[in-house]
Automatic annotation (TrEMBL), chains A, B:
Residues in Acyl-CoA dehydrogenase/oxidase N-terminal domain copies: 6-87
InterPro entries registered for this protein in UniProt: Acyl-CoA_Oxase/DH_mid-dom_sf, AcylCo_DH-like_C, AcylCo_DH/oxidase_C, AcylCoA_DH/ox_N, AcylCoA_DH/ox_N_sf, AcylCoA_DH/oxidase_NM_dom_sf
Cofactor annotation: FAD
Name of the featured protein: Acyl-CoA dehydrogenase
Family: Belongs to the acyl-CoA dehydrogenase family.
KW Lyase (keyword) present: no
UniProt-listed PANTHER family: ACYL-COA DEHYDROGENASE, ACYL-COA DEHYDROGENASE FADE28
Originating organism: Shimia sagamensis
SUPFAM superfamilies referenced in this protein's UniProt entry, alphabetically: Acyl-CoA dehydrogenase C-terminal domain-like, Acyl-CoA dehydrogenase NM domain-like
Keyword annotations of the record: FAD, Flavoprotein, Oxidoreductase
Limits of the Acyl-CoA dehydrogenase/oxidase C-terminal domain: 217-353
Gene3D superfamilies: Acyl-CoA dehydrogenase/oxidase, N-terminal domain (1.10.540.10), Butyryl-CoA Dehydrogenase, subunit A, domain 2 (2.40.110.10), Butyryl-CoA Dehydrogenase, subunit A, domain 3 (1.20.140.10)
Pfam families: Acyl-CoA_dh_1, Acyl-CoA_dh_N
UniProtKB/TrEMBL annotation, chains C, D:
Tree of life domain: Bacteria
Domain Acyl-CoA oxidase/dehydrogenase middle residue range list: 125-219
Species name: Shimia sagamensis
Signal peptide feature range: none
Pfam families per record: Acyl-CoA_dh_1, Acyl-CoA_dh_M, Acyl-CoA_dh_N
Domain Acyl-CoA dehydrogenase/oxidase N-terminal: 7-120
Keyword Oxidoreductase: yes
Family designation: Belongs to the acyl-CoA dehydrogenase family.
SUPFAM superfamilies associated with the record: Acyl-CoA dehydrogenase C-terminal domain-like (SSF47203), Acyl-CoA dehydrogenase NM domain-like (SSF56645)
Cofactors demanded by this protein: FAD
Protein name: Acyl-CoA dehydrogenase
Amino acid sequence: MDFNLTEDRQMLADTLTRFLGEKYPVEHRIKVAYEAPYHDPALWDQLVELGVLYALAPEEAGGMGGSGFDISVVFEALGKALCPEPVLGALMSSRILAAAGADQEALLTGATKYAVGITEIDAPYELDQIATVATAKGDGFTLSGRKSTVYGGQVADVVLVAAKHGDGLAVFAVNVNDVNVTGYGMMDGGGAAEVLLDDTLATLVLADAAAALKDAVNAGIVALCAEAVGAMDVTHATTVDYLKQRKQFGIPIGKFQVLQHRAVDMLTEIEQARSITIKAAAELGGVDASRYASMAKNMIGRAARLVAEESIQMHGGIAMTWEYAVSHYAKRLIMLDAQLGDTDYHLSQVMKGYAA
Amino acid sequence: MDFNLTEDRQMLADTLTRFLGEKYPVEHRIKVAYEAPYHDPALWDQLVELGVLYALAPEEAGGMGGSGFDISVVFEALGKALCPEPVLGALMSSRILAAAGADQEALLTGATKYAVGITEIDAPYELDQIATVATAKGDGFTLSGRKSTVYGGQVADVVLVAAKHGDGLAVFAVNVNDVNVTGYGMMDGGGAAEVLLDDTLATLVLADAAAALKDAVNAGIVALCAEAVGAMDVTHATTVDYLKQRKQFGIPIGKFQVLQHRAVDMLTEIEQARSITIKAAAELGGVDASRYASMAKNMIGRAARLVAEESIQMHGGIAMTWEYAVSHYAKRLIMLDAQLGDTDYHLSQVMKGYAA
Amino acid sequence: MDLRYSKEDLAFRDEVRAFLAEHLPEEISSAVRSGGELTKATMEDWHAILNTRGWLATIWPKEFGGPGWSPVQKHIFEEECCRAYAPRIVPFGLNMLGPVLIKFGSKEQQDHYLPRILDGTDWWCQGYSEPGAGSDLASLKTRAERDGDEWVINGQKTWTTLGQHADWIFCLCRTDPDVKQQAGISFILVDMATPGIEVRPIKLIEGGHEVNEVFFTDVRVPIGNLVGEENKGWTIAKFLLTHERTGIAGVGFSMQALEEVKAIARKTMRGGKPLIEDPLFAARIAQAEIDLEAMKITNLRMLFKAQEQGAPGPETSLLKIKGTVINQELKDLARRALGPAAAPFPGHVSEGNLMFGPADTEHNAGRYFNNRKTSIFGGSNEIQRNIVTKTMLEL
Amino acid sequence: MDLRYSKEDLAFRDEVRAFLAEHLPEEISSAVRSGGELTKATMEDWHAILNTRGWLATIWPKEFGGPGWSPVQKHIFEEECCRAYAPRIVPFGLNMLGPVLIKFGSKEQQDHYLPRILDGTDWWCQGYSEPGAGSDLASLKTRAERDGDEWVINGQKTWTTLGQHADWIFCLCRTDPDVKQQAGISFILVDMATPGIEVRPIKLIEGGHEVNEVFFTDVRVPIGNLVGEENKGWTIAKFLLTHERTGIAGVGFSMQALEEVKAIARKTMRGGKPLIEDPLFAARIAQAEIDLEAMKITNLRMLFKAQEQGAPGPETSLLKIKGTVINQELKDLARRALGPAAAPFPGHVSEGNLMFGPADTEHNAGRYFNNRKTSIFGGSNEIQRNIVTKTMLEL
């Protein structure tokens, strides 16, 4: 048993945190996250240069990491800085490409930006409800359907699309030049796209892709949970700091016992969220990966809502303003619940085992 | 719109509260509620003399009340005093007898004690799962099955039993001398009985009794909710009083803001519980009676748990003791959730309307 | 005990309902329904429609142009307006300054300002909060110094709602810096066109512009703009804080929100079925609906008490606390029901370019975030709990 | 980062598991499983079995008869004991007084008392709390006055767990009434057979007898029964409060409780189906299970930190707070799952007279009520939050 990071991972965490702290102050984040292209292309290049994408892929796929803990280290640092760069799509694509045994050098070097198209408006979280369908055409395939909130899709070069293929699911690569892509910014910053597939030409990446998709989703969940933990840490620290500085009726509001206890309860939930994220990271790739990913995403959903809402409330008006960083942390914490399965969806997944 | 009680009801409330306050101090309650026969026969007689049972029955059945507000006035007073007398069984029986057009003088005069046998161990809350079955035999009927937690059954003369009869439900009267009745005391004081029916002779009271049973249950729910409101009022007041008196670190613990705010939150939920109980009482007998009864029982279940648990916690050790009245109020508040449908059951009933 | 409206009240309800059906323009109610920000023109148009009917200054006495309604009638009017998705009446002139002038203003002030509020000549805003003085008004710092026939005002106000539209602002200013706390504060009316006033927008969490900072640099207003006595502004502030809190539970708005949640949950698919058939989500709705049904009665109970006793009691703090919690929960459910469809920034994706979920839900996430304010402003829920602690629990 | 036990730890776990399988008598584990009160004999028998193996004084150093385990080994041992439904070790002699004597006691005291704790000669209880001094030990009033070679003790202790079985009690007494607060308190050992001691049972909410009041009237004990320095008892009290808190999250007991909830929910019928198939109830279980899974890791993280740093930090307060909340929630679920079947008073209805639900659940409601104590004693959750506020948030 050892809860210390390996030296390599600790170094990655430190480097990334320092880098983002220096190059990416929150004012800059707020600026770039809400204006097209909804991220900072220069920063993206620098993150790639730092080796962030290599850290997310295993050696056999050309990377230098790829375990649950590699993922959580990277995303916790991204979460602390509220970074809207399209790393999630790269991570999930990388895992699918690895499962397919496909070359991913273009992804890892940042030469090609990948996004994943899984979510549909009527199947926001459930792989088995995907309606997008693949049809064989000549040597290749065409896809029809609609993929929603493709994160990073507003700047992607290639979208890996999950579609029905025969009795199962397969993954196809779609070049954004061949398809109707509408990019947009999001409530919590960063960008996504609607991808309208209408007999769109596509290349088969992986047939029988259900397991690989589930693994990519689980990896994405570990990433989102770690991102949330990083964002919650900053939000909580900022709130406690504010409690020390802000005075009301002549004394720092941090002297009010009600706010103290609520700050403690937030801390408790953050530590619990950190724990279950560690567990999900440890189990990623194993037989219980989905179970623990569901547990983690459920707990993160609850903790993140508590932290977001309580931080705003305990700040009073100031955290309701665009200028104050906490408002953006709060938005991210709330909105990530709807990525890759929300609180209730994942609770239901955990419950499924009980009836047996 | 008028939220004042009528003069008659106000008088009944005052009389009953004064009577119970004088004749039935909490020490006495604790004594009689946990020792066979798990109530105070002398007190029962006095309650009957005061006209409590008449207040629960409408004029056409020989009573002098019987509306939702009559019921809530009586049970709120009983709840304040934590009274374990078997009034609930009398109320529900009275409504069934009234629906059957049967004479109920013996019930109203207290000459015969009635209890209702609806609950079964595998059908604790759902009328449509009742397994007890009636078989015609000669001019009469026999019943087979098992009725559980028949409240007041430990001292009843007659049990009105709900049983399957043909395609529907019917109610039969069973004389306790004809049947295996095991009485016992309950965790929260008061008594109940297991009633084992094994080809037991029974008299048909009402065929096609589903509607009458539902009405009796709804009336019982109004009663339980009002009882809980009365008990919550006392529990909250006792707790606030304790906060004023008990000192820690040299100051009254009521000066700690955390306890203040929690006491306010309890008060808020109690007022909400009172409101929904008023609504359920107003709707009793009408087309929406079941809907509002379910709403009330759900909210009472949540509020009562909060009040019970917070009162114990805010008292510290003292409310964990048998000697201190709050422990008994807390037990009653918790245990009444399992009477006539618990929090989740009634939430589900409210949800049923949504799918349509 | 009788929860029903009287025959007269029912007749009044029908009258209001008929009026709204006939006179509330469809473009106004759809703007309200969509949940975006209303334009100044929309709000003014609606005020004018109500004013024509004599129903604009709902809480003013008849002799000043109010309809002379009982608390129950006011409640019914608000309920029906919510039901019809009418805009809220902008409260600063009508529900705040109006009653203040009626109680504390001079005859000249009443004669001059009240008609201009009614006919929409003057749009008022409120100058109470300051940076560093939120729930704690007594510590406010904006100074008004007397210089001959004028007040010279210096300082800063914040959270000035709809100040960007305002012609006038009523301010609490410190007129005697040497006395403590609440003493030494005066209530002064200021024309926003006076030199030295600068209004800066505050962008809110969801990107909207509804509040502002207002800066005062040597702003000179006539002595006669003082309302009530000099240094007695606190009396007016207190009057306003306890006045007219019957609508504070926001029941009508929560009923709108509940209706919306159900509508979204019927349209949204999860696991191949409408979300409303998902037991976990349905349970969340049901719990909120039960809380709201209870709140309806709690609200009526307080209203009845106010009507009987002539003034609302400290129980209104309970309405504020629970009312905002219920409303915020419902806004959370709407956002939660939409799932990823709530993600786009409002205006980015709409029926015009790409159909993305129900188009009338584009403001949903924004409204969830914006509504977090309701438990903060007007005395935060923490302040309300402090009030109940002192007044009702006597701790 | 590695969440797995080392090979050595796994081997140790297997050893413990095998020992329990062989030596934990079935009648003892069923008594634990049933949830009723254990008899003194049962607890003593189990202590003796562990002592034979050298596993009784799990936190004593080897030289005093402890097994010399690492924090992880102690954790594994506790985990396995819970898994096997072994009784908890009665902590007063073994986990409280033992470490105190080892750190603060004289050689004579160690030589005399420690072996008697191990072999069960002396059953100890704790004399800390007093009426009026619960979480606030500094205000305690029980006086010990020196009279020649004796202490003369007068006062009252309360919440003395299992005091009805005790041969000895260790007490905090005020030995200098003139100094403030924590100063002037001493730690004194008292033979319960001394004249002037009276033990009165306190009946608890569910009807059980596990705590007592202990009254001292001119109780005379030898001067040599003082542990450590006179007037420095507070140092010992603090040592005990922060010592050995690794098991404080109660994870093993919550795992038992979770297993029980699931078992009940599989047996209980609702709407014609097992309760565990009811989505609302299953959701309640799932949420508690997730919290517990997280708590397992939080617990291990704190354990790892304690092992690395040699002492548990203030984070253990978080374990206490959340650990008790989870455990209490699970006890609530068990009672809730039983529904009306939880109503009878324990002992009133059992398989002997009438089958009433699963017979092994008769203590369920009682345990729910009894367990409310866990968030009150040992420093209430409110006190724990105050501690975290000061130490971790520095507010």
